[in-house]
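Dear Dr. K.,

Following up on our conversation at the group meeting, I've run the structure prediction for chorismate mutase from Gloeophyllum trabeum. I'm pasting the input sequence below exactly as I used it, so you can double-check it against your construct before we proceed with anything downstream. Let me know if the numbering doesn't match what you have in your notebook.
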Amino acid sequence: MASSSVVRPFLEVPGLTEIRNILAQLEAPIVSALTERMNLPTDPSLYSDGGAKLLSFMSVRESIAAASGRYDYGRLEYPFTLPLIPPDITTPSNSFPPGRFHQDTYSGNANITSFYLNTLVPFFNSSTSFFYHLDNSTFNPDATFNLDATLLALLSHRAHIGKVVAETKFASNVSAITQMIQTNDTSAILAAVTNTTQEASVYAQASAAAMAFSNAWLNSGALELTSFNTTLQSATHALFQELIAITTEIEVQYLLQRLD
Ligand SMILES: O=C(O)C(=O)C[C@]1(C(=O)O)C=C[C@@H](O)C=C1
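The predicted structure tokens came back this morning:
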């Protein structure tokens, strides 16, 4: 992992249209993982400790992932259980011109974990499992935590792409946003990064993905209630609503530190 003493590469961020395409490409994997997870029964004891068991499961995976560079500079993947990469510091000899990625200290992972445990886990109440066990057992804690970890990593990656969304917005509106940063005007920054038309299009795409996945599961003869479609739509909507809020907060926090 890069450290603050190592010279970091100059990473230029893509334009807004390209980044929105990148965000859109994460919708199907997220809804797919959500659909899978909703079709595994949940032993309530797995989460009765406020998520401690899940985080301890993830910490082992994240240590292995860190060793292979998953959380390195510019990867836009931030661990839930390990220290974060040190921030960039702008100096006269090491300037960060608009359009160049600038690492800050903020992570949205605590918000993602709390949303996951409090809002999404209650949707995970399937009584059947797609794992077939000859002894008819349905509980499978390892498979369950694996999907949780996969889904959480996808949500986190998607939300932290907000850092490059923020950078590209900064580059296209430097003087106004610089003034907002200098006056610490969080509400003006929030207004500058919010685009409700784009949010509506994210909801529509996520909803279309949910429809396609639930139809695929139902058509495959999966042991699903016919209400699965509606339940998946509700979970998907709740998820994307929160994901957009967390992405937006990551954008605001990134900009507040942009000139540091
Ligand atoms: O596409 C943007 O402009 C973003 O800032 C990303 C995003 C999102 O999370 O999808 C977040 C906030 C905006 O209000 C709209 C969409």
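Two things stood out to me. The first helix runs from residue 16 to 25. Residues 28-256 form a domain with the Chorismate Mutase, subunit A fold (CATH 1.10.590.10).

Best regards,
J.T.
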